[in-house]
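ok, trying the design again with the full structure, not the truncated one.
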């Protein structure tokens, strides 16, 4: 199968990265904004992939920002990596990767209490290259599952540059991310898939465990109260059948809740 990459031309990071992909051999097809190189398909979209306004989904296009399910069928895509900007209040320069989905209300697009299919091993292969030689001063970490998209059948995950516009437009940093995406996509390394519960948004334990496991959906400590049997089922199904559960620092009722929910799934807690 082919492998997909997508970026937004309304995103400064996406705008910076598109010419870099073209420099590396991607050529536009007969369809505008669709580029190909070997077994990789690059999809450039005009709207932001994650809506900027809290709790408001743009009226159009539908589905937002494009029909990735249909594109995945047309181009026989195994998964799609989203090359994107990352914003953090701290402004910390960073490189991050994460699945998408909403454990509660949809703050930034997607549907309430819905998770997007993800692809843990390809995300892991790309993430390991982010660790190779990041630009000076950049932190590298996984992030817990958050924001849109949530509705597409094709597995997706984000690979991001943070956390301010000067970094999003930094050609050297963007080139590093592009190289990590392309190099990671060429690898077929596989590790057991895990889902995670607990820890902070930047997933310190799960980031450490990435050498041993490919992380699927991760529910940070702040999302534990939102968990339901359905959401845990989605974490499992949409992480493509994980084998193990990792728990980071949960205690008391949070730990008891996760253990009770996992007991019904038959998965083992590491």
């Amino acid at each position: 199968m082919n492998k997909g990459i997508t970026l937004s031309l309304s995103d400064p990071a996406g705008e910076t990265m598109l010419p870099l992909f073209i420099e590396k051999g991607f050529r536009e097809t007969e369809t505008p904004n669709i580029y190909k190189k070997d077994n990789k398909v690059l999809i450039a979209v005009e709207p932001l992939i994650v809506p900027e306004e809290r709790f408001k989904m743009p009226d159009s296009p539908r589905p937002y920002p494009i029909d990735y399910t249909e594109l995945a069928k047309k181009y026989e895509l195994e998964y799609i990596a989203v090359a994107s900007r990352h914003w953090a209040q701290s402004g910390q320069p960073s490189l991050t990767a994460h699945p998408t989905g909403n454990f509660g209300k949809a703050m930034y697009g997607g549907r309430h209490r819905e998770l997007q299919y993800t692809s843990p091993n390809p995300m892991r292969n790309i993430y390991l290259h982010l660790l190779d030689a990041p630009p000076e001063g950049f932190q590298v970490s996984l992030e817990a599952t958050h924001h849109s998209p949530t509705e597409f059948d094709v597995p997706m995950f984000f690979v991001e540059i943070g956390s301010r516009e000067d970094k999003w437009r930094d050609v050297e940093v963007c080139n590093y991310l592009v190289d990590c995406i392309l190099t990671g996509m060429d690898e077929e390394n596989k590790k057991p898939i895990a889902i995670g519960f607990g820890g902070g948004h930047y997933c310190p334990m799960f980031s450490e465990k990435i050498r041993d496991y490919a992380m699927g959906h991760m529910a940070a400590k702040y999302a534990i109260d939102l968990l339901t049997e359905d959401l845990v089922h989605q974490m499992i199904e949409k992480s493509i059948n994980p084998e193990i559960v990792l728990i980071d620092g949960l205690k008391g009722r949070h730990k008891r809740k996760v253990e009770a929910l996992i007991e019904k799934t038959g998965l083992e807690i590491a």
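Keeping the full-length input from now on. The chain has a mean pLDDT of 97.
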